[in-house]
Amino acid sequence: MEYDRKNKVLTVHKNVRSVLRQSGTTGGSPFAASSESSSPAVIVAQTMQYWTDETRARYSGNVLLLTEEGQLRSQVLETYSGGGRVEAEGEVRHVILKSRAPGNRTAVKEGASAEKPEARDARPSKRVLIQCARLRYFKEQNSIQYLDNVVLSSEDARLSSDSLDAVLDSTGRQIEKAAARGRVFVRQSGREVKGEMADYFLQPGKFVVTGNPAQISDPGRGKSAARRLTFFTTDDRILLENT
To answer: How do beta strands 175-188 and 238-241 pair?
Structure first.
């Protein structure tokens, strides 16, 4: 452990483990628990730097952030204001657990294992996995930006695009909808869809893809094209609009 008095930077090396809470708030986030929560977020890394004047921390080297709602892996992770803003880069993998049935949640303990986080619950939850090069989270906007070669995978679909903007629900912990931009490609139950933009609504499971034109290839129906395509992951409905 080192402290640079001139720049007011604390540096910790090797096997770093820290707890992240949002002070002075009752609402949590995918990256930090509220001050009243009994299940804090836990971060492990090889190195941590903390700027005392800025309330800013930078973690590097096989970073893993564990919360009740999932986990985030990256090579570098920076937090501001106790998790009110989070930025990650380098082989980012963000796992978000979908809502479980009551009584089926297991709190993240401060000493939780970073080697096998899935051991917190023997019954795996449904989840959304998002991979990208960079991530930015803003609590005030209740949103997450995923940038550069984004891939979103869930139980019912796989989406790739240049970028993805996700809006969280009222709890600030689950993705409610997402907007993909640039070279959009969706694969779902044998369907393949291409377009320039796509809006994804997790409930009720709906994609709205636009392009010039957007194209869909569906087994048994052949290929179709339109300026706007809407299809559902829960049934076989496909809507085509050219206006």
So the answer is: unpaired
The pTM for the full model equals 0.84
Statement to judge: residues 163 and 197 lie in one domain: no
Q: Is 173 in contact with 28 (CB distance < 8 Å)?
A: yes
Residue-wise pLDDT tens digits, 52-111: 888 899 999 999 999 888 899 999 999 998 788 999 999 999 998 865 444 444 444 444
118-161 pLDDT, tens digit per residue, is: 444 444 457 889 999 999 999 989 999 999 999 999 887 899 99
- Domain of 194 in residue numbering reads as 189-243
Q: Give the amino acid at 117.
A: P
SS (HEC) of 76-115 = EEEEEHHHCEEEEEEEEEEEEECCCCCCCCCCCCCCCCCC
User: CA torsion sign, 91 to 14 to 64 to 32?
Assistant: negative
Query: How many alpha carbons fall within 13 Å on the CB side of residue 166?
Result: 26
- d(C-alpha 44, C-alpha 54), whole Å: 21
Q: Does residue 41 sit within a domain?
A: yes
